[in-house]
Amino acid sequence: MTGVPRSAGDLALDPAALRPLLRNPGWFDTARAAVAADPSALPRAFALAGRRAGRGPLHPATDPAGVVHGTVDDAARAALVVALATVDTRTPHHDVPRPGTHSPEIAATELATRLTTLYHQGDTAERRGVLRALDALVVRGSAPTALTGHAVPRERTAPSRSPRTPLEPDVPGTSATPASSLPEPLATAGIPLAEDALRANDTSLVAAAVGPFGARHLDAHTWRHAVLKLVFLGVPLDAVAHLDERADAELARMARDLAAERRAAGRDIPPDLTRLLRITKE
Amino acid sequence: MRILDPHIHMTSRTTDDYEAMYAAGVRAVVEPAFWLGQPRTSAASFTDYFDSLVGWERFRAAQFGIRHHAAIALNPKEANDPRCREVLTEIPRYLLKDGVVAVGEVGFDSMTPAEDEAFAAQLELARDADLPVLVHTPHRDKLAGTRRTLDVVRESGLPPERVLVDHLNETTVALVHDAGMWAGFSVYPDTKMDERRTVALLREYGTTRMIVNSAADWGRSDPLKTARTGREMLAAGFSDDDVDQVLWRNPAEFYGQSGNLVLDPVPGFVAGEPPAPGVEFEGSSVLRGVRA
Ligand SMILES: [Zn+2]
To answer: Which PANTHER family match (chain B) (predicted)?
Structure first.
C-alpha cells in the first residue's frame, strides 16, 4: 500500500504511528485507558479530543484542510472507539462464547448504541470521529482481534431509488476489496449515520462517509450519489475508499451525463470528473 | 485593524456579510444563542439551533476566513416558556464542545421569576463548566434591570472578571465598570449605542475591560459597526494600539478564559479565492456557489 496516504481510520489502528502527531500524547494514552476501563468516559474524551490532540491535517502537504484523509483529532477519536471496541468484544474463542460472558453480538449492539448517541450528540468533528471509527473497525475486520458476529449483506433496497433505475444488487466483494463487513448491529447503526453525513454540505463530513465503511456497507445508489456529490463539492476523489473496485456502469453513466451537462454549459470538466470517466470506462 | 466581534448572530446574516466583515478586518466572532424572532415551542428546537451554532455556522464562517465560536444558553425571553425550559438539562453537554467559549446570552428580559430562576441556574452551569458568561441587559427598564442583573451575578459567587455585561449605555456603564466586570457596548444603526457615543464613553472610562460589538442579527443592524467604531476611535485621537486592545485583545482575553478560543488563521484560506478542500484538486467548484 505504498503511496496511498493513511487515513484517520487507518491511523486509529496504529497508536504508535499516531502518537507523535498528537499535541498531547500523554492525554491520548490516559484517555484510551480510561475509555477501555469505563465506556462512560467516552463522550467527554470525544468532546475534548480537538483541544488535547490537536486539529491539524494528517497529510498537510496534499490535504491542507484535512478534509480528504482526516485530521489528527479524527484519528484520535477513532482510536478511542477502537480501544472501547477491543474491550467490549474480547473473547477467547470467536465462535463459542464462554458461559457467563456476554456474547460478541451483544457487545456489538452496545457499541452501536454508543456510536449512534455520540454521533447525534456530537459536533461536526465528533461526527467525523464516529465515521472514521467505523472505517477503522471495518479495516480491522480481518485482523485477529476482529469483531465477530453476523455480517450484514451488502444488498439493500434504497427507498429513494427511482423506479426507473434497475434494482441491481451491489458489486459482490472481490479479492481487490479487502474490507470485511461489520457485525450486523454495527452495520445497521452505522449506515444511517453515514447517510446523515452525506446529506450535509460540510465537505469534511461528506468525505468521512465514503471511507472503507461506506465502501463496504452503503448501498450502490447511495454510494454512487456520494461519489458524485464529492465532485460537485470539489473534494478530491482520493477520499473515496475502493473507488476503482466499486465504480460500476451506472456510475459511469452518471459521470458521462454530468460531463455532457458541463460541456453544454460551457464549463470546465473538473479533473476528478475526468478521473471518474477514466475509471468507469472499462 | 484586526477585529474579534464578541457578539454577533451570524445565523441571521448572509455570505455577503461574511465577505464584507473579512475585508473590514474581522477574523473571529462569537455567536451567542438567542431567540430567533419567532418563539420556539420545544427543547428539540433549541438543540437543533445549538448544533448549527457549533456545526454548520462554524463551517460557513471558515469558508470566509473567519473563526466562529459560540456561547450557549437558554435566552431570557424563552425562559418564560416551560416547554423551552426543558433545554436546561441539555446545556451542560454543549458547554463541553469545542469552540463554546461562554454561557450566553443569559440575563433578564421582563424580569419575571422564571427569568430569575433560569439566569441563576445557568450561572451555576457556567461555574461547573469553568466558562465565562455573556449577560444581556434588558431594553425596557434598563437601569433597574442592570442593577438586578449585578445582584444575581454577585449572589452566584462568580468572579467579576468572568462576566461580560452587554448592551450598556451612558446610564449603566458605571455600575458594571465599578463592579469589576467587563462592559459591552452594542453599536447599532439607530438604537442602543452609536459609534460617537461609544467613543465618548471610552474616553471617559478608558479602554480597560471595555468591549465593542455589532450584535448584528435579523433586525436592523450592521455587522461592520465594530470596524466603524475603530475608525471613529482613530479619528478621535486614540492610537492603533488602543483600537487593537478594544476590538481584539479585550474580547480575546475575556473569552480566552474558556481555554477554548482558536484565533490562528483558517488553514488553506486565501482572501478573494474560493476555499479549496484539498490542493490536489484544481479549479474547484465550491460551496459558496454550489449546493450538491
Ligand atoms: Zn444578541
So the answer is: HYDROLASE TATD
**Which pLDDT does position B282 carry in this prediction?**
34
Cell 502537504, residue? A61
**Residue B267: which of A65, A207, A233 has the nearest Cβ?**
A65
Q: Give me the pLDDT at residue A105, please.
A: 52
Q: Ligand 1 centre from B187 Cα, in Å?
A: 12
Asked if the model's pLDDT at residue A7 lies above 50, the reply is yes
Domain membership of residue A131 (yes or no) is: yes
CA distance A31 to chain B (A): 16
Does the distance separating the beta carbons of A238 and B280 come in below 8 Å? yes
The rounded Å distance from CA B105 to ligand 1 centre is 7
Q: Which amino acid is at A113?
A: T
Q: ∠ at Cα B97 (B94, B102), nearest 5°? A: 75
Residues of B in contact with A200 (CB under 8 A): 56
Residue A150 confidence (pLDDT) above 90 = no
In chain A, which residues have their Cβ closer than 8 Å to the Cβ of B288?
A: none
As a whole-number percent, the residues of chain A with pLDDT over 90 amount to: 68
A236 in contact with B, Cβ within 8 Å: yes
Strands B163-166 vs B182-186: parallel, antiparallel or unpaired = parallel
Buried b (16+ CB within 10 A) or exposed e, A176-205: ebbbbbbbbbbbbbbbebbbebbebebbbb
Question: Is residue B249 very low, low, confident or very high in pLDDT (cuts 50, 70, 90)?
Answer: very high
Answer yes or no: is B51 within a domain: yes
Answer whether residue A227 is part of any domain.
no
* Band (B84; pLDDT cuts 50, 70, 90): very high
CATH at B247: 3.20.20.140
> Residue A109's domain spans which residues?
8-150+177-218
According to the model, what pLDDT value does residue A159 have?
43
A50 CA → ligand 1 middle, Å: 27
pLDDT of residue B140: 85
B25 domain-assigned: yes
Number of domains into which chain B is organized? 1
> Of B274, B286, B247, B256, which is closest to residue B26 (Cα–Cα)?
B247
In a domain, B198, yes or no: yes
The number of angstroms, rounded, from the C-alpha of A12 to the middle of its chain's C-alpha atoms is 12
How many domains are there within chain A? 1
The pocket of ion ligand 1, defined by CB under 5 A, consists of B 34, 215
Residue B181 has pLDDT above 70, yes or no: yes
Mean pLDDT of the residues in chain A? 83
Closest partner CB to A51 (pick from B56, B59, B260): B260
Domain that holds residue B271: 3-285
**Distance, CA of A187 to CA of A115 (rounded, Å):** 11
Nearest CA in chain B to A68: B278
Instruction: Establish if B259 belongs to a structural domain.
Output: yes
Q: Is the pLDDT of residue A169 over 90?
A: no
What percent of the residues of chain B are helix, what percent strand, and what percent coil, each to the nearest 5?
45, 15, 40
ipTM computed for the complex: 0.79
**B172 to chain A, closest Cα gap in Å:** 37
Q: Stretch A6-14: mean pLDDT, rounded?
A: 96
